[in-house]
Automatic annotation (TrEMBL):
SMART domains: AAA (SM00382). Part of the ABC transporter complex HmuTUV involved in hemin import. Responsible for energy coupling to the transport system. One of its GO terms (molecular function) is ATP hydrolysis activity. InterPro entries: AAA+_ATPase (IPR003593), ABC_transporter-like_ATP-bd (IPR003439), P-loop_NTPase (IPR027417). It holds the Pfam family ABC_tran. Keywords: ATP-binding, Nucleotide-binding, Translocase, Transport. This is Vitamin B12 ABC transporter, ATPase component BtuD. CDD domains: ABC_Iron-Siderophores_B12_Hemin. It comes from Pacificimonas flava. The keyword Iron-sulfur does not apply. Residues 4-239 form the ABC transporter domain. The keyword Repressor does not apply.
Amino acid sequence: MSALHVEGLGYSAGGRALVTDASFALQPGSFTMLIGPNGSGKTTLIRLALGLLKPDTGTARLAGEDVQRLSMRQRALRAAYLPQSRPLAWPQPVIDLVALGRFAYGGGPGRLAGDDAIAVEKAVAACRLQPLLHRSADTLSGGELARVHLARAMATEAPLIVADEPAAALDVRYQHEVMQLFANATGAGRAVLAVVHDLTLAARYADRLIWMSEGHIVADGTPADTMTAERLRSVFVVEADVAVGASGDVSVEIAGPAA
Ligand SMILES: Nc1ncnc2c1ncn2[C@@H]1O[C@H](COP(=O)(O)OP(=O)(O)OP(=O)(O)O)[C@@H](O)[C@H]1O
């Protein structure tokens, strides 16, 4: 069964269509990246897919269930969401923020035992948060805080992780670590959908790219099949050199804006 299946999603606001007729399905074990220019509708599509916005048309199903019919807890058991804007920086210890990932199971800050404790411990180790565990979250750097939110999402152990620009605040080492973390999660059978702006990371780590432009899905396939100089020109208005190696690995170098 698909971890997420959206069909014909459409949504308008402010007198214009932000997402039009979007359909795709995510299978367990797949690492999919949603890419497209600023304002092309990626966050809106994700929010529709997770039931955080009500679509004008179409349906979204999480593990087979219509997302609009699920309670918050039922949704949290099926999908972990790492939003783009993460203003949460209360004067709260890091460990408590990560523990929030367990609320759907009845766990949480000060209530970590059994499976909840194990899941939090694993997420803390994977995101290298041990030295920060007892720091107050409002004293962290942007990148440190981003890793805390990532650990909260990982601690849910939900079969689907949806992350909106998870690497945006991270230095180059942690960008790769986060991508590797997601790749490991998919290796363990979870599905990951991540919005990513860095096309080098996208080409390197994604199994599949869903390309958005002006609210439409304009391409959907492997990096080797979809990452072409022509598509980069039409979607991002840049000139690029793209090379596909014998094993299907893709390297992309952006030369600059297209004329
Ligand atoms: N409630 C709303 N009313 C009017 N316009 C909206 C509303 N929500 C989003 N938009 C607009 O819809 C477009 C798509 O927004 P969205 O956040 O989905 O884009 P995005 O692809 O995620 O962009 P970015 O890469 O910049 O994060 C933008 O032009 C945004 O200003």
